[in-house]
Amino acid sequence: MTTIGHLINGQLVTEQTRSQNVFNPATGEISKQLDLASAKTVEQAIAAAQNAFPAWRNTPPLKRARIMFRFKELLEQHADKICQLIGEEHGKISHDAMGELQRGIENVEYACGAPELLKGEHSKNVGPNIDSWSEFQPLGVVAGITPFNFPVMVPLWMFPMAIVCGNCFVLKPSERDPSSTLYIAQLLQEAGLPDGVMNVVNGDKEAVDALLHDDRVKAVSFVGSTPIAEYIYRTASANGKRCQALGGAKNHAIVMPDADMDNAVNQLLGAAFGSSGERCMALSVAVAVGDAAGDVLVGKMKEAMQKLKVGPCTDSGNDFGPVITRQHQEKVVGYINSAEQQGATIVVDGRHPNVPGHENGFFVGGTLIDHVTPEMTSYQEEIFGPVLQVIRVGTMQEAMDLIDAHEYGNGTCIFTRDGEAARYFSDNIQVGMVGINIPLPVPVAYHSFGGWKRSLFGDLHAYGPDAVRFYTKRKTVTQRWPSAGVREGAEFSMPTMK
Amino acid sequence: MTTIGHLINGQLVTEQTRSQNVFNPATGEISKQLDLASAKTVEQAIAAAQNAFPAWRNTPPLKRARIMFRFKELLEQHADKICQLIGEEHGKISHDAMGELQRGIENVEYACGAPELLKGEHSKNVGPNIDSWSEFQPLGVVAGITPFNFPVMVPLWMFPMAIVCGNCFVLKPSERDPSSTLYIAQLLQEAGLPDGVMNVVNGDKEAVDALLHDDRVKAVSFVGSTPIAEYIYRTASANGKRCQALGGAKNHAIVMPDADMDNAVNQLLGAAFGSSGERCMALSVAVAVGDAAGDVLVGKMKEAMQKLKVGPCTDSGNDFGPVITRQHQEKVVGYINSAEQQGATIVVDGRHPNVPGHENGFFVGGTLIDHVTPEMTSYQEEIFGPVLQVIRVGTMQEAMDLIDAHEYGNGTCIFTRDGEAARYFSDNIQVGMVGINIPLPVPVAYHSFGGWKRSLFGDLHAYGPDAVRFYTKRKTVTQRWPSAGVREGAEFSMPTMK
Amino acid sequence: MTTIGHLINGQLVTEQTRSQNVFNPATGEISKQLDLASAKTVEQAIAAAQNAFPAWRNTPPLKRARIMFRFKELLEQHADKICQLIGEEHGKISHDAMGELQRGIENVEYACGAPELLKGEHSKNVGPNIDSWSEFQPLGVVAGITPFNFPVMVPLWMFPMAIVCGNCFVLKPSERDPSSTLYIAQLLQEAGLPDGVMNVVNGDKEAVDALLHDDRVKAVSFVGSTPIAEYIYRTASANGKRCQALGGAKNHAIVMPDADMDNAVNQLLGAAFGSSGERCMALSVAVAVGDAAGDVLVGKMKEAMQKLKVGPCTDSGNDFGPVITRQHQEKVVGYINSAEQQGATIVVDGRHPNVPGHENGFFVGGTLIDHVTPEMTSYQEEIFGPVLQVIRVGTMQEAMDLIDAHEYGNGTCIFTRDGEAARYFSDNIQVGMVGINIPLPVPVAYHSFGGWKRSLFGDLHAYGPDAVRFYTKRKTVTQRWPSAGVREGAEFSMPTMK
Amino acid sequence: MTTIGHLINGQLVTEQTRSQNVFNPATGEISKQLDLASAKTVEQAIAAAQNAFPAWRNTPPLKRARIMFRFKELLEQHADKICQLIGEEHGKISHDAMGELQRGIENVEYACGAPELLKGEHSKNVGPNIDSWSEFQPLGVVAGITPFNFPVMVPLWMFPMAIVCGNCFVLKPSERDPSSTLYIAQLLQEAGLPDGVMNVVNGDKEAVDALLHDDRVKAVSFVGSTPIAEYIYRTASANGKRCQALGGAKNHAIVMPDADMDNAVNQLLGAAFGSSGERCMALSVAVAVGDAAGDVLVGKMKEAMQKLKVGPCTDSGNDFGPVITRQHQEKVVGYINSAEQQGATIVVDGRHPNVPGHENGFFVGGTLIDHVTPEMTSYQEEIFGPVLQVIRVGTMQEAMDLIDAHEYGNGTCIFTRDGEAARYFSDNIQVGMVGINIPLPVPVAYHSFGGWKRSLFGDLHAYGPDAVRFYTKRKTVTQRWPSAGVREGAEFSMPTMK
């Protein structure tokens, strides 16, 4: 059985001390072994990065960017292979994996603009004959810790921009589906990156803690659940590191009575069930304003969900695949059970999906729950599964109050055709990413991704313009040349001790 | 005796529970009493700010900026009064206080540009007929905690920009010299700021901790010593607040053999002894490259220091005044003693300054110490007094290694006329603010202030462009209008004609 | 009788060769004489500007900006006087003059941000150890030629930004109402501007041509009618000057059936009749989509117009005043006559306004014309009077085609509450300034003003960010320091001829 | 013999009415025929572009950029072929052609950043609940007219950025060496560009005039000689088109006595003789400050020039090739003759180069002329050949006055190691592109290219950030939603549930 190792200083290595199973979630079977890095191995990766830093920092941004151009080409050439690796370990259907990869590539494309993005500000004559300018210098070694749900996209949010800014990188991917992540790191190496600039260590908490406590690591980017995000942020901050830690979500869509309802249903379908709902931007709660809107929404949604197909990634006709683990499957089903017990109506029930030939796969079918209330467990916590819950309220303000009362503030959306409603909503809602008739308002790569409240710890958002600032430190130079010297000819007789 | 209170919701209040003496450092006498805020009083200030927030956030940036225009006028009109208050409690000579005020006003001027600075990024067609843009929304209530050495300038680094971005502010000034700070807050009120947007609480650790632990406070800006900065940063971060905490410094100037030496000496004089060296950007170490340069430097410096005049702020002919407290005076003298004991040469000795009529004032004279080495206590720690130490090294690289080995990385400078030396230095030195023939490279208000290493905790620097980002949170909106609606005439029959 | 002269090199001068009458349009009487500058006088102004340039260009932007801060204060202090001068010569009611002044002051406020706006772009390592940056340097002497309808605001679009960028300015205001313009120039002088940086020459075509043909004038900003704009642009361009020339307009509002009609009527009232319609952004054509919308619009408009009050500026209860000259009054009435003759319906007729005590004033009352068609003369040409014409079309696309077919493309507006209609309109309409439920979409001072098609000749729009680029020339510096020199100690024995 | 045609609407076409010879300048032989477009053919190209515009403008910038990513790949893949085509018709040695191509590709790389570069500015609450933002919309059909000396690079300055901004393009390349230009246009087509977005017409003045007089062409970019640039600029401007027209140059290097002279000589060698001096940034005048510097410079230069190799592009060991035509060869030799006659010293004489086997080629050898004075014809006019002239002056100020007195202001350079001299020079010299120890200060692609004085007609420089502004028109939208509508429940009864 294949053992997945680490990429350190341009070499694939394994430690062979501790390991962990990697599953195929569509079959429930163990497919590979993952070598778990010890603190010592992590330190080797950090050392390799530290060692590569001086030369890499001095490489002109244009040259650094050109490696990203080449990296983009390689990602496109090897797209099928990448999506296959995602599918085998994550379970994502190929069209969805392709979408993930495409979104990731957009971040590489953005990184190609480094020479423009790294420009500092130049001021002539801040005083008489005094000039001042800012430079955005790389930090040194920076680390990324990434989740299972986007094994390619989320790492691509981080390392291309960090590296193109002149940093060296140590990535610790998810231990659930590490192969695609490792593979794209190898492609970056192939694109011409010098050894040591990009390193991957697979592992668990030991590896994470090694990264958090090593003084050579200057910044940490994290995406995962809120409790871990909070731990990462506190630990990294206490250790003097720059940190951005993205956590959980509970994303609501408000459905106004004037919404284009067919469009709303169509959009919600993908946003709620795509990737089995295992997205931090998954739309998991629909808030209908008025019972009339609620009835139409639930009716149309129920009908549309008849056509949903769940199954293995090997059949591209499926809409979504299994969830990531047996435990997670049970947890999702548990939330549906709890909603039922607490009085909600299970309109479409995905607890017993029929996936012939994959009876041991970790599948949950698309589930629609109506008449959910804020007190229910299934509302208060993040389910991270293919479950859409409907809440009914009387007014748009009630809907907004509901959203603002939730601990998370990642994404949200309104379906309406009214300009005023859209503007009021986007202005006032306490959520970082807002969609207007867009249920998954993931910012494009040239804007930045970040939730509010307990969905993100840190000052700066992920990728886009904020990432440039996150992965660089500002240096401000002020310059005056004190006397005319060679220009006036008076000092031809230097040396200059007067 | 006057009791200095708090500014809460537009009203001056005192609590009269605990208080502390405020001294005139030039005479050593107690001049005023400072009311120390309890946690409860701090909470009232926070509540006032929170209450003022919704209306203030919705006030157009242009209107917010106009209050800053008016504030600038008032600061200029009342400059003498402000400088007098600074002098009485801090001891700073009037021309120096005026310089501090002027630097502070520059931050108000920058804040007047809020409408420009708050522009978000607008992208048409991120997808077909989909637009996306970013908004930089205020955080809510934010706090500032400021040091004694710039009772006017450092608060002005913070609250004008925070407020003009739409936030409400609670400021805790230094307990040593609170009057000028309180006074400028009252001027801002007079400029038309709505009650509650700007609040001042005087106090000690109880007040600080109340700010650090209140959930309504979304961000904390701090300037002070490194141990406290680290405490503030860790506590604020652990409590989910955004934080920037600026700490101590040990700023070196490299004096190259080709330097314009008369200019260098002239510059160092002000940079080392101005404001009694109680500046986080004070130039406290001169590193001479080559003994020849060292000898010339020390010789010229010694001569120039003959003319230095130390005395009370009431005589504007003085160059600098007393240090802030009796304890601090003793500490500075202790550092000079230690250098002498550890083998350095006291070239000019300021331990026993003669200030007739002010024998009880907290004065230390300008002191020059030669042949300092890196092992000496006086080199390793921040003295924060009118003491310039000279170290001699053989090469520029040695000088740079020395700087990079120090725990602080606030400011630094090189004196040279060689373009290559200047560029190599500014590129590679691990310090956030770099001067080329500029000994106090404090960035102008439209750039940002921040050291590296243990001189600053946080991602973003103080004032300037970074402050805009620090005092706002990014919201990204993505918008699509789903069907043609009224445009295509399908809904001509809507009953909208009123 | 007062003779209005010129401001040259800080001095008010008159030539007393040729002069022209200045009228009070509310009474029809001659109130002052205007001295008309010969080419020689214009050349003196240019020479003064040229002479002042070297020192002004080297004045730090922050210091230049501070004069603008002071200028803003003076404009506010003398607002009543300025508005009185506008009223006496232009006829504008005081609240309208105050609005004009306020809009002008916003441009001064924007100019206060010069240190931020003039920042260049700084790139480290465009090649190994090669840096490059851009500087935006002033052009030298630049000229402005401004129209009668905004004697204060339009000059303030130009000279504050030009001057704060480091240029010296020669302004030729309208010969109809020159006093307020000259007065604000004097206030700028009072604000501390060095002599010669700002100059005003009053005059006619001789003065204009002198400016257009003098090689020392590097750029010309013009606002006026399209034929003159075109002449100015061609002549200036042929003479190698940078030029932006803003011309005429025919601004349409589309009124959709779903519009908030009371709001639309209320908005249109001010936009069509304010300042007697003598604004290049006046809303002069309402395009009703559907006859139902048309009927409601005309009905409500007719009713609302009953309350319109036309009269002299001395009565602040009036809504608008006279037009600028007897000839212009006759021209406006002629357009109304032609519309009537060509078949349109005069719903409200302003051809014979009753202004007791001002029978000789140049008044035209608010006029509403329905059933206008594209062939009519009154539609094809710019009326520049208090006349609103209504066209009725069947669809929004027809309305947009109408707008796009017109030779002008200055401003336009849509009244709707439908997000999709608004977005489609703003995206596709061939007009430079677009309002959504905003009938006078004049960009705020921190954006830029400019029409499309034959409403503006030139690449860059007026004021705001574009003005910074217009009033500066880009210089790009690329720098490498070739050998280590003093840093490595090898070349201590300079001079360097090897 | 091959006939070179036009690329119109994705098709290669020829007209076969008029044609012109294309030469191999290394042999002097006719190698191909160039079909000369009539006005009618040009109009077909414009029509194709106009037709392609609506769909292309609506294509998301990210998709437009992706074609540029692919175009870059194709340019790299076919680099040898491109360089061969350049060599055959221009005569440039392959390493030089590769350098040209590489510089061109950098502009394609910059164009890949279109989504970032096209961002508008978004302002919330310019008034209460009023938002405003700017959009940078494409112009429509734009044209480029390019010179022989960079048949690949200069076109790549223009069309990638124009096209990625959403415009459609008609390019008229040089008639001397059109093949490489046409070939890269075909590669862009292959990269996936829709038909009609990019068109190439080959031709002479008839084609140029057709472009200048067609109303559908909204902007013209030109690079060539100053008289033609001026004609293009005047004609295009008079016809209401946006225009930037780059003309001639006379680029001086100041050689200071403290310069690193070996480096200076080495740099000057390439800058003066590379590409036979047929570059608008060629360094054609060296101004030595002091006779000592002059003697060293001329001595070292003479020595270094012994190794210069001139010959056909087929031998990559050559340093440079022939000039473009027989006429041009004679003109260059004529300038050398005139200098000799007017009293200058021909130090190295290239008038009779020995290129065995290529006796009919248009070769001129590297020529060094000393003791040139400002009155000489060879100094006053642009030679555009491999001729370096040396002028000797007494002071740096004299050198600068000389540069500023010349009609051109394209590029310039100073060789020094003194920071003050470099800063004074770059600040004050009236030249648009300034090098400090960089003899060819061509800005990198993410800055902008442009000379001052008679080297450029127009407001905005070529490529880089200025090109984004040049190839787009600003639209400013101001938006208010007037009443609460669906949000407040007043319109709940709307019949919108579909």
From TrEMBL, chains A, B, C, D:
Molecular function as annotated in GO: methylmalonate-semialdehyde dehydrogenase (acylating, NAD) activity
Matching PANTHER family: MALONATE-SEMIALDEHYDE DEHYDROGENASE
Ranges for domain Aldehyde dehydrogenase: 15-477
Organism of origin: Oceanimonas pelagia
The protein, known as: methylmalonate-semialdehyde dehydrogenase (CoA acylating)
GO biological process, one term: thymine catabolic process
Record InterPro entries: Ald_DH/histidinol_DH, Ald_DH_C, Ald_DH_CS_CYS, Ald_DH_N, Aldehyde_DH_dom, MeMal-semiAld_DH
EC primary class: oxidoreductase
Keyword line: NAD, Oxidoreductase
EC number(s) stated in the UniProt entry for this protein: 1.2.1.27
UniProt cross-references to PROSITE patterns, sorted A to Z: ALDEHYDE_DEHYDR_CYS
Secretion signal span: none
Lineage, highest ranks first: Bacteria, Pseudomonadati, Pseudomonadota, Gammaproteobacteria, Aeromonadales
